[in-house]
Every structure is written in structure tokens, then in C-alpha cells.
Amino acid sequence: MAWDTARQLDDNYKNTWGFAQLLEHIEIGILVLDLKEHAIDYCNAAFFEVLQNDKLCSDYQGLYDLFVRNIEALDDFDLAGRAAHQVTYQGRLFGHSVYKAASDCRCVFIRDITEKSRLEAIAQAANAMDNIGFIFSGIRHEIGNPLNSLKMALSVLKQNSETTSPQILREYLDRGLADIGRMEYLLKSLKAFTMYDSVELKDLHLVEFMGKFISLIERDFNSYGIRIKTEIPLDLAWVRIDERALHQSLLNIFNNAADALREQEVPEIHIRAEVRDQLMWLTIADNGSGIYPEQLKHLFQPFNTNKVNGNGLGLVITRKLLAMMDSDIDIVSEPGCGTQVTIRLPIVTEEVRALQLQRNL
């Protein structure tokens, strides 16, 4: 019995030593604050390297105000604290998360993300410039062609106004109106691209949302012989989205599917929803013509399209809207094997729903 007790004490000592060594050598700064005593209970070596400020490192109130106070004030602190937060101090950007280690104890994980943020900003700026280049090139092409055609038609009519027959006149007028319609369509698409400068996120029941959405489009799709099949469990988690933005995103995806199903004998679209990795996976799959690998690489570039009357902005707008809702989109396709589009939406956990319902009572 004495030997077992000695071995247990020895094991506890080794475990304590092992955890201490791990915390001291980890590259993330770790800070533990005792709220009751208003004291710094623990900090590892990386904490001093990350902050690089001896005065702040020993200032309990300063550390609490900088990293904990605003997050702890949130109604759902237990969940929100674990998310990644950012704070700027003396020109440097820190990423941190806060955990309630005990009722009067807060554990903070801190990283200096100043350089990471700078590099990401450079990459985003470069990407934005590339996209702007694509957009202006596309606009020049999409407006330039019909504008030149219209100018040519009007010039011919002007030169031959006295001898042009009514039939040829109508042909030129129809051609000019078609060119104007093409430019109007482009301008409407560009308006759709910019109309969602911000989104209004709300908790929505995906089953109800999809029911409304499908009821709106089903009649038109049925008129083309396209059958829509759904596998959406009734007990799905709620999602936090902007209803208008998700509606527009799905409409773009379904319109693309309808175009791909034109030549299919038994056209079908399958919709499936499930929760995976704390996200709502909504999959829309069709058995249409599919997409060639070279086209697949450039799907999200502005004005990239193989449609006769398309302008290549639908998926660009869709990805923008989803990104504004903290969501993303993935497309898998092969020629002749159909296309599968997966969008991942943030879910609202039962804990958060319960807290929200309590606040509303």
C-alpha cells in the first residue's frame, strides 16, 4: 500500500513537471488572472516575449482591461470568449481568446499577429487589384462590343436613311435594342454585386427557410422538367445568416444548375443538409453537363463564363455574399458527371439559443 502511494505521488510530480515544461516552451503567451485577488496567477515565458512590455506584464488591471473586460461583458461570454479576438496596443496587433478556468479565474491565450495581419493585408490588396483588373477588363469587353455594334448600326442607318427599306430598318432596330438590353443586363448584375454592402445576420431555422425557397422556384423548375429532391432533416440546427443574401446566393446556384440540365433527359437537383464540424453543410447536386477542369479553375473570376447570355458575375456575387455571412462555397464537378455545390453556414448552438430565448422572455 505504501509503495502504491509513493508511486502515485511520483506520477503526480512527473505530470506536474511535464505540464509546466510544456507551458513554458509553448510559443503562445499564456496568462492566468485571479479576479478575486486582482492578481496575476500565472504567465509562461512566451507571454513576456509576446507582449515585450515589462510594465504591462506586471499590471493586473492593465491586462484585464486590455484582454478580458470587453469580452467578459458579452452575454454569451462562455462561448464568445473562446473565439478569436483582436486588440491593438502601442501599434501592435494581438490575437487572443479567453477561457473561464474557474468562477474567479480567467485564462488568456495571446499571440502577436501584427506581421501576419500585415502580410494578409498585402495579399488581400494584391488580390483586390487583380479582381479590379478583371472587372474593368470584363466591363470594357461586355460594354464595348454591344456599344460598337450599336454605333455601327446607327452609322449605317444614318448614311442610308433615305434608301433603307422598312424590313432592314426593323432588323437594325432589333439588333440595336438587343445590344442595349445586353448592357442593361450587365449594369443590373453590377448593381447586385454592390447592393449588399452589409448584411443583417439573424438566427433562422434552415428547414423553414429552404421550404419557402423551394416553394418559390419549384413551379418554374418543374415547367422545364427539372425535379427537385430534398434530404433535409426536420431537427436541423438553426443557422445565423442574412435571409436575403442566402436567397440570392441559392438562386444563382440553382440558375446555374438549370442551365447545366438543359440537355439532360431526366434532369434532377438533389438538396442535402447536415451538421459537420460545427457548420451547416448545404449541398446542391445536379446531374447536368458538368464543368471542364480549366473552367473550374476560373469559376470565381469576374466575367468568366461559357454561357451565351451570361456575364460571369453570378458566382462572384454568391461567394461575396457568403463570405459576408462567415460562410464559404466549394464546387466539385466533372464533364458529363454533374456538379456538386457545397456551402457551409455558421450554426447557432443550443446553448446560445437557450441564452437568447431567456433574454427575450
From TrEMBL:
EC numbers, comma separated: 2.7.13.3
Keyword Kinase applies: yes
Catalytic activity annotation: ATP + protein L-histidine = ADP + protein N-phospho-L-histidine
Keyword Ribonucleoprotein: no
Keywords, ordered alphabetically: Kinase, Phosphoprotein, Transferase
Superkingdom of origin: Bacteria
Pfam family, one: HisKA
GO molecular function, one term: phosphorelay sensor kinase activity
Domain Histidine kinase positions: 138-349
Database matches in PROSITE patterns: HIS_KIN
InterPro entries: HATPase_C_sf, HATPase_dom, His_kinase_dom, HisK_dim/P_dom, HisK_dim/P_sf, PAS, Sig_transdc_His_kin-like_C
The protein, known as: histidine kinase
Organism per entry: Desulfuromusa kysingii
